[in-house]
Design a protein that fits this description.
mainly beta
């Protein structure tokens, strides 16, 4: 689930499609929203209906949350700091999520 600032609402972006071959790794850049942001909560959701092909944005009410993770930053980050979120779905259907960020302070 990603907050769309222009629309002022949450959106679900399909990163792994129902017909994608396994195993698969997908990385997506997301960004902090406010200055001095100290954490972000990343929700993992599954569509209630099968979605394939080019249907990437799904309304949140057509999904159910299957997990979430809170990422607490070592230092507060400025707005628009990039966070790379990676999802890995293995052959056994196990989904793993990880994130990384590159941040350097201006002197």
């Amino acid at each position: 689930v990603v907050f769309n600032k222009e629309k002022n609402e949450d959106e679900v972006m399909n990163l792994i499609q129902a017909d994608d071959p396994l195993p698969i790794n997908v990385t997506r850049a997301v960004y902090t929203v406010v200055d001095r942001q100290t954490r972000v909560i990343i929700s993992v959701v599954q569509n209630k209906h099968r979605v394939t092909g080019e249907q990437h944005v799904v309304p949140t009410d057509e999904c159910e949350e299957i997990g979430s993770a809170e990422v607490v930053f070592k230092h507060p980050l400025p707005a628009k700091s990039q966070i790379d979120v990676t999802y890995t779905l293995d052959l056994d259907g196990i989904l793993k999520q990880g994130c990384s960020m590159l941040y350097s302070e201006s002197i």
